[in-house]
Amino acid sequence: MSVTLPKGFTAAGTTAGLKPSGKPDVAVVHNTGPSVAAGAVFTTNRVFAAPVKWSRQAVADGQLQAIVLNSGGANACTGAAGYKDSAATAARVADRLGLIIDNVAVCSTGLIGVRLPMDKLLPGVDAACAGLSPDGGADAAAAIMTTDTVPKQAGTTVGEWSIGGMAKGAGMLAPGLATMLVVLTTDADLTAQELDAALREATRLTFDRADSDGCMSTNDTVTLMASGASGVRPEAGAFTAALVDVCQDLARQLIADAEGAHHEIAIEVTGAASERDAETVGREIARSNLFKCAIFGGDPNWGRVLSAIGVTDAAFDADDLDVSFNGVMVCRGGQIGEDRALVDLSGRHVRVTVDLHAGRASATILTNDLTYDYVKENAEYST
Predict the structure, then answer these.
(1) pLDDT for the residue numbered 329
(2) Considering 89, 179, 185, 221, which one is annotated as catalytic?
(3) Dist. CA 74–CA 15, nearest whole Å
(4) What is the pLDDT of residue 213?
(5) Which residue stretches of the chain have pLDDT < 50?
(6) Distance in angstroms (rounded) separating the CA atoms of residues 211 and 206
(7) Where are the beta strands (DSSP E) in 234-348?
(8) pLDDT value at position 291?
(9) Could you read off the pLDDT of 269-309 as tens digits, one per residue?
(10) Binding site for substrate: residue ranges?
């Protein structure tokens, strides 16, 4: 399962020497068509990186033929010179593959405030373009890793069409249309407008609800390219549902790997007056350091859940709140529920369920207990 699962895509990953570790750091994903329709969503951080500026312009016409990605440097806060570096990177891919430069998106990830070593990056781009293969998805996924400990890939096949994807992200995971770097591909035959609508809905329901640390990156980008190579035009609802599944798979992988977390936590809020209320409550709990500390310590401290709910503007009655940890309702009606000793938090997966009893809307936020063991092993702080 990778970005080359759908027909009409090749990919490659290579080592250009951008990382002191010597690990792979340049990837290219090429859409060989016949369609070049595409959509993308980007960080809403007002401080955004040069590749985000370039890629917004590149995908504005709803077309992309290739995406080039590098790890080992974010090319953020590098001014006009950094933008020229992004343009030069896109131009190199276009030249090597015979593409239109405006149809090449650029993504970068790594340390903010440092220029990319173009004397290393461009030869790496050449090598990646030369190595493009229908079997290159795994190499591309490995090349975009920064503090990730494992590559992240997903895919699904529905009848005669498929969706594939890869992602990176082990920190600065917080919502704002897109979080982290994600490349999605499909061989379905869809228009740019249809891709954009499906991508925004899928992102809203998945990546926007993955919240590890409340920090939004300067480089966040999620792209979706369609080759149309299957010749099949799926119904919009069916395609969106499949895309949501792939994005949810990637989002869960990101949360699982984020910052060396010991627990993956799903916070399900039900009975909300609106979807907005459900998201607000779930996100407030997810961002509570006291709540995270409790989970890390194996303590089903529902008082910390209630205190987080209480600072939101969501509609609820404090005497009508239910909270469950892994299926045990430790708080019923805003008061003491089942014996908290019945809760087992020894496993990696934790589900916290909150019922506001204020309506019928619901939402699930993915987070973790945010430990920082990975700092001991990683010298770089990256986007």
Answers:
(1) 98
(2) 179
(3) 16
(4) 62
(5) 172-179, 372-383
(6) 10
(7) 264-272, 322-325, 328-332, 335-336
(8) 94
(9) 999 999 999 999 999 999 998 999 999 999 999 999 999 99
(10) 146, 168, 179, 259, 378, 383
* DSSP assignment string, 123-160: HHHHHHHHT-BTT-HHHHHHHT-SS-SS-EEEEEEETT
- Token digits of residue 76: 């953020």
Q: How far apart are CA 51 and CA 43, in angstroms?
A: 11
- Angstrom distance (rounded) from CA 285 to CA 365: 9
Q: Which whole-number Å values give the CA distances from 242 to 33, 187, 245, 359, in the listed order? A: 21, 13, 5, 28
The token pair at 100 is 């239109």
206 noted as active-site residue: no
b/e for 212-227, b at 16 or more Cβ within 10 A? bbeebbbbbbbbbbbb
Domains identified in the chain and CATH numbers: 9-256 (3.60.70.12), 264-380 (3.10.20.340)
Q: Which two tokens stand for residue 272?
A: 């909300």
DSSP 208: G
pLDDT at 214: 62
Quickly count: other Cβ atoms within 10 Å of residue 47's Cβ.
11
pTM: 0.87
Tokens representing 167 are 């992602």
Q: Which residues, including other chains, have CB under 8 Å from residue 209's CB and lie 6 or more apart? A: 175, 251, 279, 282, 363, 364, 365, 366
Q: At what angle do helices 192-205 and 236-257 cross, to 10 degrees?
A: 40
